[in-house]
Design a protein that fits this description.
With 867 residues, the protein is of the alpha+beta class. The protein has 24 helices and 34 strands. Strand 4, helix 4 and strand 5 form a beta-alpha-beta unit.
């Protein structure tokens, strides 16, 4: 029996023997594509080739792609673990032809690998082809020795692939494996048709061969593509299941060691039935968590970070079902690496980092979960109905991370039903909010273009020039004069690598366009702006960059590199960039560090950066192979798109980074650097916000102005400011003391008056009245004074504190048995819409109705006589 490791390698080696080049998997967290949550198919990294935007460097490629499907359109999260084949994380084996071989080779090789190398029985194999694809049908008959009865035609649903509403598309041909009638499970259903692509588990799809031969136009018609491609995908976990003769993906050697580790940690043995669901869910989710984190994903409250957080929370909650109450997921990462680290070496390199992120998030979730349980109990005691509201369920979900099903279980235990419709309504509203906030997007295929020139990659001149003479190759204009256009060459930088786009002007005698944004689509630069005058033609135009703005951006970008290098010196080599934003007004830099920076570390970092600025180092850029850059010690995340050359930006020996951004020519151009804030971005990630150049000047000018203004308000000089403030604080304290004693004096005289007008009820001296007091402490204080002055007797004081009634009752010791203060205060409170009670000698109560105080006082006689 082959191990998963052997199977993966056999696939790669087989296609290498057919002259394919092996390409590494692209990261599962896409770095350049904000429209894609996670890499979810093998083709993501080749999209630009398939759209014809770039020339392929190799025409035959083989790879195994890390994929995550969770959240968004492919939301399988809730099904994962309940069956043997849904996963959040999976690997896709694929061989690719970019305008090279076609159907004949793809079918021949897939058949040969499956039946000759892997030796799966030929009589168990079935092939499907699209209704329109007679060519593939004939090929299956002629180039393979498959049973001819096992080749079947199918419709668009099963055998036609499309990239989107418009764009490349084509028929597909799939290979299915017959697991035998025992796997049907629907024998008793007379309506069941036990066939390939049917609705039972007898036949499973092993491999999908997609032949991209058409372009789908807007009117739904198809045009043959000039360059036709082959894209194949074989689900790796499934291939392992069949080759290892298992019933479920979870029984393969990809999962068994992980499941065993979970069983060992929890002491709960694994079962292939329903009781094993928590084990399976955890085993699946920990793979997704390990790979997404090592590729730069971080749990958070938005976008892909939120999906990662949900996956982690679901896994942690499953842990509780197995009595794992302490963080444990991070420990399982080691086993994931044992199983897959040999092929995905990036994961192994990040082992400690991945564990730290996962552990931190687990700790946080455990706190949240405990808090949520308390909140749930609170909500329960606040509701009288048999219905648990949708608003409450949503709050538990949104704030405490309680999945709906968990709340449902808890509510059910208490005999309550949940308002599911109300919950779903709030979920819908939240999704709409998220959608409206999602980032700007241009769909190149969808846009109605006016084509003026040849379509070819935009040449970027902006590293050396701030002007160019260019032509518009195509543009799209709406009624509002919003325009998107592609230039043959441009000095305007397109947003990427955390650096914002340039702004600028494009014009000639007839046409004028203000450019407000530039986005990349593959190798094309899409300039976005307003058409001020004329209409674009084939004539040349002058393009100019907003130079002051660009200088500020470049200055902030170079400073970001210096900051990165300085942090590694001050904090250590574990510092890794986790995100950055470079704009004209400042820079933001996220990096790994276990704790916040001390004031001293911040000062050291600032001074290192400023020292490099003052040195006036030339900023050097070289374009080279990624391998050479690595050898050269450049810092960056490698492995985004295959085959690309990289640009290395260095400042002498101080900093060396892979970077496509714009920079100043000499570090002295930055002028000055200042860190404004240092804070936590998420678990294990710190964030620094900083400014350079004129912004630093302005920052200090503003500070100076603030100090001067404050000093003049306090009628002193800036240098004497702290002394002045200290003396003001002291003065304020003295005044407070004085005020307090004045207040108690005045309360004393008020009480004196009250005592002088004491009533005699049932032979007891009774004082009852209102005092002008505004805190409970003062009222208690007044009670003590009253007790002293009254000596023997009963006192009842009313006061209005924060708009509500406060009542205090004191009773002397000789009377407290017969007239308990707690009872008196309770009765008095009832007149002012309140409740209360307390000790027999002293009690306080509150009430809502201030207007009834006088009435309450008038009732004192009745109350005392009632005892
Ligand atoms: Zn069946
Ligand atoms: Zn950079």
């Amino acid at each position: 029996m082959y191990s998963s490791r052997e199977i993966r390698q056999q696939f790669i080696d087989y296609f290498i023997s057919k002259k394919h080049i092996e390409v590494p998997s692209s990261p599962v967290v896409p770095k350049d594509d904000p429209t894609l949550l996670f890499t979810n198919a093998g083709m993501n990294q080749f999209k630009n080739i398939i759209l014809g935007e770039i020339e392929p460097k190799h025409t035959r490629v083989v790879d195994t792609q890390k994929c995550i499907r969770a959240g968004g359109k492919h939301n399988d999260l809730d099904e994962v673990g309940r069956d043997g084949y849904h996963h959040t994380f999976f690997e896709m084996l694929g061989n690719w032809s970019f305008g090279d071989y076609n159907k004949k080779e793809a079918i021949t090789w897939a058949w040969e690998l499956i039946t000759e190398v892997w030796k799966l029985p030929k009589d168990k194999m079935h092939a499907t082809v699209h209704d329109s694809d007679l060519e593939s049908f004939e090929l299956w008959k002629t180039v393979t020795d498959i049973d001819h009865k096992h080749i079947t035609y199918h419709g668009d649903k099963d055998n036609f692939w499309e990239m989107g509403e418009t764009g490349p598309c084509g028929p597909s041909s799939e290979i299915h494996f017959d697991r035998g009638p025992a796997h049907c499970g629907k024998e008793d259903d007379p309506k069941h048709d036990c066939v390939v692509n049917g609705d039972c588990h007898r036949y499973i799809e092993l491999w999908n061969l997609v032949f991209m031969q058409y372009f789908r136009n807007k009117d739904r018609s198809l045009t043959p593509l000039k360059m036709q491609h082959v894209d194949t995908g074989a689900g790796f976990e499934r291939i392992c299941q069949i080759l290892q003769g298992k019933e479920s993906n979870y029984d393969t050697d990809l999962f068994v060691p992980i499941i065993n580790h979970i069983a060992k940690l929890s002491g709960v043995p694994y079962s292939q039935g329903d009781e094993g669901t928590p084990h399976r869910i955890i085993a699946d989710h920990i793979r997704a968590l390990s790979f997404s984190t090592s590729d730069g994903g971080i749990p958070s409250n938005e976008g892909r970070g939120y999906v990662i957080r949900r996956i982690l929370r679901r896994a942690a909650r499953m842990g509780r079902l197995l009595n794992l109450r302490e963080p444990f997921l991070y420990k399982v990462v080691d086993t994931v690496i044992d199983v897959m680290g040999h092929h995905y070496t990036g994961l192994k390199q990040q082992q400690e980092y991945v564990k730290m992120i996962i552990k931190g998030e687990e700790e946080r979730f455990n706190l949240t979960l405990d808090k949520g349980l308390v909140k749930f109990e609170e909500m329960l005691s606040a509701t009288d109905s048999k219905n648990f509201s949708g608003a409450n369920a949503f709050m538990l979900y949104d704030t405490y991370g309680f999945p709906y099903d968990l709340t449902a279980i808890l509510a059910e235990e208490k005999g309550l039903t949940i308002d599911l419709a109300g919950f779903q309504q709030r979920m819908k509203e939240q999704k709409e909010r998220a959608r409206s906030a999602s980032s700007f997007k241009i769909d190149v295929v969808e846009t109605d273009w006016v084509v003026l020139g040849d379509e070819r990659p935009t040449e970027f001149l902006g590293y050396t020039n701030n002007k160019s003479t260019s032509r518009i190759n195509k543009y799209s204009l709406n009624d509002n004069n919003d325009i998107i256009f592609v230039l043959d060459k441009t000095p305007l930088y397109a947003e990427s690598g955390g650096q914002v786009a340039d702004k600028g002007l494009v014009r000639n005698e007839d046409v004028e366009i203000v450019v407000t944004d530039v986005k990349k689509s593959g190798e094309l630069f899409l300039h976005v702006g307003k058409l001020i005058k004329g209409l674009p033609t084939v004539r040349e135009l002058k393009v100019t960059v907003d130079q002051t703005r660009r200088m500020n951006i470049s200055s902030n970008h170079t400073a970001t590199h210096l900051l990165h290098a300085a942090l590694r010196i001050v904090l250590g080599d574990h510092v890794q960039q986790k995100g950055s934003l470079v704009t004209d007004s400042g820079l933001r830099f996220d990096f790994t560090n276990f704790k916040g920076l001390s004031a001293d570390e911040i000062a050291q970092t600032e001074s290192l950066v400023n020292a490099e600025i003052r040195k006036g180092t030339i900023v050097d850029t070289v374009v080279m192979n990624p391998e050479d850059a690595k050898k050269d010690g450049a810092t960056a995340l490698f492995g985004e798109k295959y085959g690309d050359k990289v640009r290395v930006v260095s400042l002498a020996a101080f900093s060396k980074e892979l970077c496509g951004g714009t920079h100043v020519h000499n570090s002295a151009n930055i002028g000055s650097f200042k860190i404004k804030t240092e804070s936590s971005s998420s678990a294990g990630i710190r964030r620094i916000e900083a400014i350079t150049g004129n912004a630093v000047n302005k920052y200090y000018c503003d500070l100076e102005e603030l100090v001067n203004k404050t000093a003049s308000m306090l009628k002193t000089k800036p240098a004497q400011l702290t002394a002045k403030i200290e003396s003001l604080i002291d003065e304020n304290k003295e005044l407070e003391q004085e005020l307090k004693s004045l207040k108690s004096q005045s309360a004393g005289s008020e009480i004196e008056t009250l005592v002088n007008s004491a009533l005699e009820i049932s032979g007891v001296r009774v004082v009852c009245g209102k005092v002008g007091i505004d805190s409970s402490d003062e009222l208690r204080n007044a009670g003590d004074i009253l007790k002293q002055k009254l000596r023997g007797g009963i006192g009842v004081l009313f006061a209005v504190i924060n708009g509500k009634v406060s009542i205090l009752t004191t009773v002397s010791d000789d009377l407290k048995k017969q007239y308990p203060a707690g009872k008196i205060v309770g009765k008095m409170a009832s007149f002012v819409d309140g409740k209360g009670g307390g000790r027999p000698d002293m009690a306080m109560a509150g009430g809502k109705d201030v207007s009834k105080i006088d009435f309450a006082i008038s009732q004192i006689k009745t109350v005392i006589e009632s005892f």
